[in-house]
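Lab notebook, bench 4. We co-purified these components, and the gel suggests they stay together. Before we commit to crystallization screens, I want a quick structural picture of the whole thing.
Request: model the full complex, all chains together.
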Amino acid sequence: MKTIAVLGSTGSIGTQTLEVAREQKDIRIAALAAGRNIKILEEQIREFHPRMAAVWDEAAAEKLKISVRDMDVKIVSGMEGLLEISTLPEVEILVTAIVGMIGIRPTIAAIQAGKHIALANKETLVTAGHIIMPLAKKCGVQILPVDSEHSAIFQSLNGENPARIAKLLITASGGPFRGRTREELAGVRVEDALKHPNWSMGQKITIDSATLVNKGLEVMEARWLFGVDLDQIQVVVQPQSVIHSMVEFTDGAVIAQLGTPDMKLPIQYALFYPDRRFLGGARLDFARLAKITFEEPDTDVFLGLPLAYRAAREGGSMPTVFNAANERAVSKFLRREIGFTDIYKIITECMDAHQTRQNPSVEEILETEQETYELIESRW
Ligand code: NAD
Ligand code: MG
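Here is the predicted assembly.
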């Protein structure tokens, strides 16, 4: 029996994690956490019987307390609630499927409490990777990637000597706007940006995939997870999303993981690593798969990638500015307050205005996030 807690249980990764738990009978759900969707959370509590559940929003938590008063479950709220859930004694693996930098403190607390982390919440590693990776090493816990590209790399590295990595090749679908010009990109609508060609995901990451900011975040995530230099990471556009990522080794061999696009595979792999379990669903059919094609990313149009490299090269608090500016800009775009390419403008202006602090503490990271938000509020 494996005991896990899921932060962000009502979201795209969270619900798929619970699907895996439903199939694999030997996973016990000790705790669940969500933002404010108490309707779905209540259904999850009734099905999985966690002993604790957290709702970020206090008013929603109070409502939930009343509706589940017939159940044996403690309802908590706010950051305190998230921290309590992340450090429950019986939890072995914390699945971080929450969206945004809000995941930093719970992830750190869980590592300190000796929990392995099944990490979907890439924003946490992007902004605090320099704190999280050494801490995980010190505490003897594993950071198990859930992001499909990083899971593919992790699988490709199985049994290999990490010192023999020449290059990580992170694949990208190119998003719904692949092939468009800058001018065309400026006029795209929210509905179009939310149509990812291959993957069905939460709203924020779907927009990030359209801007290629997601790929930029994944480059930074990979750098921390696998301890490689930035110039050892190459992004390759592979529009069919069949190859989930690859590793080139010093002898020139390239090992890749392929499959149909289904996030349950990386989730399940993280939960049972190094074992593999049966997972239902479509299989790759090479006879019907007409072709797999490759392109270079268009970094003149999709500025998400070059901006991310700039933030990563600068290091310190700059990735936090990149990430926080993007989080706010994406919210504004989703509310139709700004255009699509304004997301790049906002990230660029916030990065231009920022004085990098090297090796920032958690407090400094959160301060930088706040400063970035304030700058955006004052300008846009
Ligand atoms: P989502 O928007 O579908 O779900 C987010 C979840 O977080 C929801 O359950 C929401 O209630 C919860 N949440 C938000 N704010 C919260 C708060 N303050 N306190 C507690 N819970 C809160 O997002 P998603 O697409 O599942 O993505 C989650 C993370 O996984 C992101 O970091 C994303 O980049 C990463 N990821 C997602 C996918 C995917 O296929 N969806 C793939 C790779 C990586
Ligand atoms: Mg990914």
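The radius of gyration is 20 Å. Worth comparing against the SEC data before the next meeting. The chain has a mean pLDDT of 97.
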